[in-house]
C-alpha cells in the first residue's frame, strides 16, 4: 500500500496497558475509536471476549493505523483490509469467542508461509504468483485462536539475509528509519514495533526472529526444533528453521507461543528455586565482540538476575569451527533447496541469491550437509546445560545494519555484513534448542539493545518465565517513539529523507 499520513503509536507504561493516546488530540490517525492501537494482545483478547470491544473495532483501528504509518516503514507487502474486516466479523459472530485466547487480535504473517487466498512470494518477485489454496498449520492455529490476519509482512529474498529489502522496497526500522529492522522477519518486526499489529508471525533459521526483535526492541522466542509445526520451504533449512512470534510483552509472547505450539495458554511455570545461569560475551566468530552498549546490557541483565536470587557464572559454550561450518552449509543449501521447491528459476533470482544458490548446489553435491554434525552438536550443547539452567549472551555486535537496497550489493557484501553484525544466533538453530531475545538497555538516542537467553531442549517455559521476571524488574518501552507526533519523523519521510518504497 502507498498511503501516507501522520501519526504514531500509543505509548504505555512500558509493561501493561497502553494509554489511550495515539495522537496529540488523543485520537487514532484515521478517526477510529481511540485507545485501541497500542493495547497488548492479551488485553485486546480479554476485552473482545468480554464484549467490551468488537473484533471489527479492533481490526479497523489497526488497519487505519497501518494506512497512516506504513508508507514510512514498508512493513507490509499486502494489507488485507476487506478480508480482515470480514474475518473479524466472523470472530464477533462466533459462539466460541468467549474462549478464544487471541479473540480479535490483529496479526501479520511473514511472506514465506501460506495464507489461503494470498500469494506467498518468499520475498522473491520471481516466485510464480499463484494464490495459496490453504492455510499453513501455523496460520490455521492462529485463526482457530481468534486472531485476524491483517496483512502479509515483507521478507528478503528466500529469507536469507539480515536486512529486509527487495526491488523497489526498503523496509525500515520504526526506532530509526535510517536503519534496517533486520531480517529475515524484518517486516513482521517493523509492523509490531510501529504498533501496526500487537503480534506477528516470523520464523528463524539463523536468527531471523531474534535479529529483528533485537533491532526493533521486541521480545521473541525461537522454539526448539519440533515444538511448533515447521513446513518452511523445502525442509526447514535441514531442520534449523522454526516458526515463532514477535511481541511487545512477555505475556503476549507466551500466549502466542502456546497457540503456535498447540498448548493451552497459561502462566509460565515458576521453577520454584533459584537458577544457576551461565553468561558468556565471547563471540563464536574470532575477532568480533559486542560494543560498549551491548556489554552494558549483558551486565545489567546479570545484575538483575543476581538481585532476583539467581547464581550467574561465567561459562562459554563449546561452539567449534565444525559446528559453525555445519550451520553455514545448511544456510547455503537452503537457498538452492527452497528455490527448487518453490519453482523459482535461478536466473531470475537477485544476483546475491543466485550466488547463494550456486554455492548451495555445490554443498549438496559434495555431501557437506551431514546429519551427524547436527546430532553431535545438539548432544554437546545439551551437556553444556547439565549444571546450568540457562545461558545469557549478546545478540549482535552493535546497532542494526543501515536501511539500504542490500539486494543490489554482492553476495560477499551481504554475508560479511550479516556475519559481522550477528555472530551469536546461528549455533542454537543447528543445536535445535530454544532461545529468547528481549530488550535490556538503550543506546544514546534510545535505540534498544537486546540480550539473548538460551536453554536446553524443552526450556521454552523457563525462558519465558525468566524473560517475564526481567521484564518486571527492567521494563522496556513497548513501541518505537519515532512515530510520536511530537517527534522528528512526522513529515511523511524517513530520517534519511527517503520513502521506504524508494532506495538510498
List keywords for this structure.
504 residues; alpha/beta; Amidase signature (AS) enzymes; eleven-stranded mixed beta sheet; two-stranded antiparallel sheet; disordered N terminus; Amidase
Total count of strands: 13
- Specify the number of helices: 15
- Described by its quaternary structure, the protein is single chain
Q: Which residue ranges are poorly predicted, with pLDDT under 50 across at least 5 consecutive positions?
A: 1-31, 484-504
Q: Alpha-carbon distance between the termini?
A: 20 Å
Assign the CATH superfamily: Amidase signature (AS) domain
Quick one: overall form? globular
The helix/strand series, from N terminus to C terminus, equals HHEHEHEEEHEHEHEHEHEHHHEHHEEH
Provide the spatial order of strands within the biggest beta sheet.
Answer: 1-3-2-6-8-7-12-13-11-9-10
Major sheet attributes: 11 strands, mixed
- For the record, the CATH class is Alpha Beta
Beta-strand fraction estimate: 5-15%
Rg (C-alpha, Å): 21 Å
**Looking at CATH, which topology would you report?**
Amidase signature (AS) enzymes
The chain-level mean pLDDT equals 91
Binned, the helix content reads 25-40%
Region (Disordered): 1-36, 481-504
Biased composition (Low complexity): 485-504
Biased composition (Gly residues): 1-28
InterPro entries: Amidase (IPR000120), Amidase_dom (IPR023631), AS_sf (IPR036928)
Amino acid at each position: 500500500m502507498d498511503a501516507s499520513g501522520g501519526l504514531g503509536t500509543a505509548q504505555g507504561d512500558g509493561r501493561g496497558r497502553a494509554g489511550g493516546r495515539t495522537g496529540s488530540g488523543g485520537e487514532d490517525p484515521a478517526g477510529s475509536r481511540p485507545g485501541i492501537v497500542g493495547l497488548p494482545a492479551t488485553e485486546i483478547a480479554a476485552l473482545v471476549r468480554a464484549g467490551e470491544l468488537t473484533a471489527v473495532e479492533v481490526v479497523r483501528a489497526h488497519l487505519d493505523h497501518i494506512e497512516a504509518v506504513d508508507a514510512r516503514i514498508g512493513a507490509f507487502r499486502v494489507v488485507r483490509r476487506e478480508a480482515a474486516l470480514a474475518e473479524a466479523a466472523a470472530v464477533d459472530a462466533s459462539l466460541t469467542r468467549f474462549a478464544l485466547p487471541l479473540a480479535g487480535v490483529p496479526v501479520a504473517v511473514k511472506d514465506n508461509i501460506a495464507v489461503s487466498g494470498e500469494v506467498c512470494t518468499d520475498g522473491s518477485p520471481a516466485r510464480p504468483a499463484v494464490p495459496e489454496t490453504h492455510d499453513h498449520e501455523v496460520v490455521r492455529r492462529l485463526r482457530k485462536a481468534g486472531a485476524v490476519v491483517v496483512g502479509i509482512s515483507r521478507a528478503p529474498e528466500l529469507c536469507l539475509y539480515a536486512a529486509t529489502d527487495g526491488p523497489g522496497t526498503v523496509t525500515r526500522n520504526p526506532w530509526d528509519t535510517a536503519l534496517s529492522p533486520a531480517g529475515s522477519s524484518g517486516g513482521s518486526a517493523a509492523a509490531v514495533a510501529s504498533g501496526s499489529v500487537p503480534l506477528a508471525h516470523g520464523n528463524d533459521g539463523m536468527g531471523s526472529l531474534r535479529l529483528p526483535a533485537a533491532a526493533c526492541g521486541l521480545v521473541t522466542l525461537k522454539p526448539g526444533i519440533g515444538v511448533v509445526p515447521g513446513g518452511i520451504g523445502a525442509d526447514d533449512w535441514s531442520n534449523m528453521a522454526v516458526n515463532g512470534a514477535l511481541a511487545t510483552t512477555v505475556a503476549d509472547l507466551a500466549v502466542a507461543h502456546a497457540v503456535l505450539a498447540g498448548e493451552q495458554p497459561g502462566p509460565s511455570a515458576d521453577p520454584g528455586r533459584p537458577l544457576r545461569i551461565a553468561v558468556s560475551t565471547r563471540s563464536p566468530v574470532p575477532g568480533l565482540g559486542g560494543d560498549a552498549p551491548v556489554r552494558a546490557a549483558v551486565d545489567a541483565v546479570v545484575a538483575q538476575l543476581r538481585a532476583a536470587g539467581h547464581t550467574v557464572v561465567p561459562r562459554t559454550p563449546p561452539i567449534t569451527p565444525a559446528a559453525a561450518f555445519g550451520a553455514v552449509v545448511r544456510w547455503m543449501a537452503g537457498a538452492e533447496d527452497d528455490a527448487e521447491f518453490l519453482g523459482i528459476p535461478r536466473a531470475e533470482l537477485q544476483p546475491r541469491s543466485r550466488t547463494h544458490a550456486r554455492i548451495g548446489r555445490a554443498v549438496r553435491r559434495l555431501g557437506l550437509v551431514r546429519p551427524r554434525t547436527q546430532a553431535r552438536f545438539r548432544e554437546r550443547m545439551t551437556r553444556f546445560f547439565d549444571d546450568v539452567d540457562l545461558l545469557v549472551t549478546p545478540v549482535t555486535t552493535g546497532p542494526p545494519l543501515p536501511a539500504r537496497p542490500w539486494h543490489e550489493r554482492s553476495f560477499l557484501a551481504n554475508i560479511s555484513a550479516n556475519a559481522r553484525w550477528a555472530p551469536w544466533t546461528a549455533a542454537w538453530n543447528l543445536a535445535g534448542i530454544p532461545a529468547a531475545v528481549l530488550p535490556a538497555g538503550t543506546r544514546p538516542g534510545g535505540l534498544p539493545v537486546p540480550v539473548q537467553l538460551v536453554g536446553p531442549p524443552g526450556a521454552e517455559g523457563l525462558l519465558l518465565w525468566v524473560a517475564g521476571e526481567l521484564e518486571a524488574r527492567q521494563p522496556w518501552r513497548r513501541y518505537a517513539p519515532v512515530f510520536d507526533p511530537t517527534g522528528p519523523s512526522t513529515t511523511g519521510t524517513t530520517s534519511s529523507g527517503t520513502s521506504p518504497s524508494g532506495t538510498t
